[in-house]
Amino acid sequence: MSLICAKRTLAVPLRTPAVVNYLFPILACLLWGANTIVTKLASGSVGPIDIGFFRWLVAAIILLPFAWPRLRGHLPIVRANLGRLLVLGCLGGVMYQCLAYYAAHFTSATNMGVIQALIPLIALALSRLFMGHPVRGTAIVGAVVSTVGVVAVVSQGDLARLAAHGLNRGDAIMLVGALAFAAYNVLMQRWKIPLSVLESLFLQAMAASLILLPVQLLVGTGVNNLTAVGCIGFAAVCASILAPLTWMTGLSRLGAARVSGFFNLVPIVTAALAVLLLGESLSGWVLGGGLLAVSGVVFAEFSARRATVVREAEPA
Length: 316
Hints:
mainly alpha, single chain, 81% helix
């Protein structure tokens, strides 16, 4: 009897605690926030196209020995979804990343942060338009609260300054990048390509490298110092491998509409790391706005989780 019970116990699959699912997008935000600090420290050492190309090339080379053994058995799936993988690599690896680098040359960090805060709202709208996902009022309230928090952080409470700047060339570039990243999140959820996260990331890194190769050959300036090498290395390992792996894992477990809201934490993480590592002052606007941003994400997630529980509890 005890042996039978033991076998039954061993046969029960281990389930990941629900709270662990939230750690994936949070870790991704921490890594992307840290990458922003590294990029600031290495400003002027490496060009936008150079870091965009080499970070994905190095990431693809690192991922190759881990992904290829799995991909050999999934080549029919890869061929069937080649176009989709190219689109995902273009949106997440090329457009958003490179456009953000370029936008920094023409607009302020304040404006970039505000536009980044629009990504969850854009993702919600795209999910509603193209996937038919219902958008509850509580989710909208959470997104708005989180957006207000981020605006408070990046503007330091000076909304008149934001209004005075208007939409310049850098703002327009960043807005296109935000749209690209929101579309990436939605398409990842809609297509659900039957590949592991590791395989998908490798193929997207390869796609981004191939797309950027001719641009790099035409306008790239090269890598000429150790600071640039270190920046590319951090971006390749932390921002191009670890962050996307954890982000895509969160997407697969929680869904696009729920995970996208966590992206509002990136400007907050960046501000906190700037205080710790760059010696910048922590103003009341940064602290209060950070609390609002986190509260909005938590509220939207709690509402989505509660709605899921209610739907599962309803009789068929």
